[in-house]
Amino acid sequence: MACEQCFESIFRQKIGRCKRCMVQLTVLSLLAWPIWWHYFADQPKTVESIALLFFAISFTGLLCLHLLVWCYRKLYQK
């Protein structure tokens, strides 16, 4: 990523600060879930369906982690 916080080396310091990461994860989540639902929801045991489902869950989970830490830092930061 190209923002200043992402050049830091510790994962805990990066999470919840990079707005570019959060925007990318939002876009990827908004793309992955409808694609999975439209093309693969009726055949959930195929390799493509499982792979896209794992990607969608990963994007959404990391976005939720970013947002939780961002809210925590906004509420409890001095």
What percentage of amino acids are in beta strands? under 5%
What's the helix count?
3
Query: What's the order of the H and E elements?
Result: HHH
Number of strands: 0
Rg, nearest Å: 15 Å
Distance between the termini: 26 Å
**Class inferred from helices and paired strands:** mainly alpha
Unreliable stretches (pLDDT < 50, length at least 5) are: none
If you average the pLDDT, what whole number results? 86
Largest sheet: none
- The helicity comes to over 70%
Which word captures the global form? elongated
Summary, kept brief:
The chain is built from 3 helices and no strands. The protein is mainly alpha-helical. It is elongated.
Task: Describe the protein in words.
This protein is mainly α and 78 residues long. Helices cover 72% and strands 0% of the residues. It has helices spanning 11-14, 19-40, 47-76. α2 (19-40) packs antiparallel against α3 (47-76). The protein is elongated, with a radius of gyration of 15 Å. The two termini are 26 Å apart. The relative contact order is 0.16.
Secondary structure layout:
Elements: H1 11-14, H2 19-40, H3 47-76
Provide tags for this entry:
78 residues; 3 helices
